Amino acid sequence: MRNLEIRKNFFISVSWQSFLFFILLNLIFLPQAVTMTWMQTSSNDFVIGERNDVQVTGSGTGAYLGIVSPNWTNMNPATKPSARQRHAMAYDSANQKIVLFGGSVGGDETWVYDLAGNTWTNMNPATKPSARQYHAMAYDSANQRIVLFGGNDGTSDDETWVYDLANNS
Question: What is the DSSP code (8-state) at residue 129?
Fold first, then answer.
């Protein structure tokens, strides 16, 4: 059993399978589009994602739903990627940076965001996937690499690419 806590002193116990079913129902049946990113944090083992001011986080003993402040802060970094859509992002926990690739504009660009320094850097690796959109990315913590799969560059791609942020390759 895993514990599921909804802040404001409401606490229920559910199985891990029930918890995942709840998340899937939320994603499938609510009409809004959502992007979920798994991210390790220093205060929790993981953050699965946010929607409608509710954040799903977890630790070694349970998963938690918490009400998140509805306030956003415009970081307004001096340099940043161009506006885009249909891109993918993944959090590299070893380097504590967010990696962005592709999208409808700047489709073969690899950008890295450092929240601590509030800086975006265009990495421009020598070898990279073709420009694409609708692809997916995830972080492989065992190998400390970003994995990119699929997408569309005019036709559907079935390619798997791996990116090493530390070596920009």
Answer: P
Sequential DSSP letters for 26-88:
HHHHSSS------B--SSSSEEEEEETTEEEEEETTEEEEEE----------SS-PPP-SS-E
- Sorted by where each begins, the domain ranges of the chain are 2-67, 88-167
Cβ atoms of 160 and 148 closer than 8 Å: yes
Q: Judge whether 134 and 152 are in contact, CB under 8 Å.
A: yes
How much is the pTM? 0.63
Q: CA torsion sign, 121 to 140 to 105 to 159?
A: positive
- Are 159 and 153 in contact, with CB atoms under 8 Å apart? no
pLDDT in tens, the chain (169 residues): 333 433 333 334 444 445 554 554 455 444 444 444 445 455 544 454 555 555 555 555 555 555 555 677 888 999 999 999 999 999 999 999 999 999 998 789 999 999 999 999 999 999 999 999 999 999 999 999 999 999 998 999 999 999 999 999 9
Give residue 159's identity as a one-letter amino acid code.
Answer: E
Q: In terms of DSSP bridges, do strands 119-122 and 88-92 run parallel, antiparallel, or are they unpaired?
A: unpaired
Tokens of 101: 């690739």
